[in-house]
Design a protein that fits this description.
7 helices; mainly alpha
Length: about 230
């Protein structure tokens, strides 16, 4: 449904999200073509960071696709994409190090990560069903349904917001260990930072889009009540 709130609030956030996706893909592609001075792959980097952090019991395995890298806390497994797992590049080391940062957070019981994991079921339901329930309640003049939809979507928005410190902290942990170990040169480390900063902007854009969509729902519901 396109309305003035959508055009003013949501559309610019979606445009920013598209730009962020383009930036992360172009930055990743650029630094995927630049090998590290040492023969270190993404898998090697992940294993090194886990040893340096005294993390045990976490497996690393390849996963299909590009930019599909993630840490699975339930399985205690780092899943690294094909351009990362066995590749020697600044981008591969940076992405693998970031995902290892999540494994370190998990092992340390990092509060925001624990909260984000608890919010996953609410976020899954809220992001898909929340807006539709709210809109249905608005058109049916059913205030309880509107409130339920907004509350569910609010849980999804909270998930997006709490994701920001989780992602920033994972990158900060990774960069600190890489710098301390000196397995990368300062120029290579700057490349890693550019890759991770570009990736972080996609999370910022997603959080902003969710927040603007949430605000739009609230404003539409408020106007219908008048």
């Amino acid at each position: 449904m396109i309305d003035s709130y959508y055009l003013v609030l949501v559309a610019p956030a979606l445009l920013l999200s598209m730009l962020a996706q383009f930036k992360v893909r172009s930055t990743f592609a650029k630094y995927s073509r630049i090998p590290c001075s040492r023969p270190i792959t993404g898998k090697d980097a992940a294993q090194f960071l886990m040893r340096a952090s005294h993390i045990t019991g976490v497996a690393a395995e390849p996963v299909r696709g590009s930019l599909t890298d993630h840490y699975d806390p339930a399985a205690k497994t780092l899943r690294l994409s094909q351009p990362v797992y066995n590749r020697n590049s600044i981008a591969a080391v940076g992405v693998a190090a970031h995902e290892t940062g999540h494994a370190i957070q998990h092992a340390r019981g990092y509060g925001p990560l624990v909260l984000r994991s608890a919010l996953v079921p609410i976020a899954n339901i809220g992001s898909s069903a929340g807006p539709w329930l709210a809109i249905a309640g608005i058109f049916l003049s059913f205030p309880l349904l509107v409130k339920l939809g907004i509350m569910l979507f609010g849980g999804a928005v909270l998930f997006y917001l709490i994701t920001l410190p989780v992602e920033f902290d994972a990158s900060a942990r990774a960069i600190a260990i890489l710098r301390g170990s000196r397995i990368l040169t300062e120029d290579e480390l700057r490349g890693v930072k550019r890759v991770l900063t570009a990736a972080a902007m996609t999370y910022v854009a997603s959080a902003l889009t969710a927040l603007m969509s949430f605000l739009r729902l609230i404003l539409i519901a408020r106007n219908r009540d008048r």
